[in-house]
Amino acid sequence: MTGTRNSDLTIRYLESEDGVVHTALASAGGQEHEWRQHTNEEAWKFISRFRR
Question: How far is CA 33 from the centre of its chain?
Fold first, then answer.
């Protein structure tokens, strides 16, 4: 996924032996250290999928 400032958000989903995704690794490349709405929205979409 490419953002509006030439940044890249990459998410890799890792399946366990039974085929269920328990782990996702995300990285954002090509961006400065600043608050960005898009990055926070994507992080929240990921985190909100999980319940205790």
Answer: 16
Token pair in block for residue 50: 């999980």
Which amino acid is present at 24? A
Q: How many CA atoms lie within 13 A of 21 on its CB side?
A: 9
For 28-37, how does the pLDDT look when each residue is reduced to its tens digit (9 = 90+)?
Answer: 787 776 666 7
CA distance linking residue 8 with residue 14, whole number of Å: 19
Decide if 39 contacts 28 (C-beta within 8 A): yes
Query: Does the pTM of the predicted model rise above 0.85?
Result: no
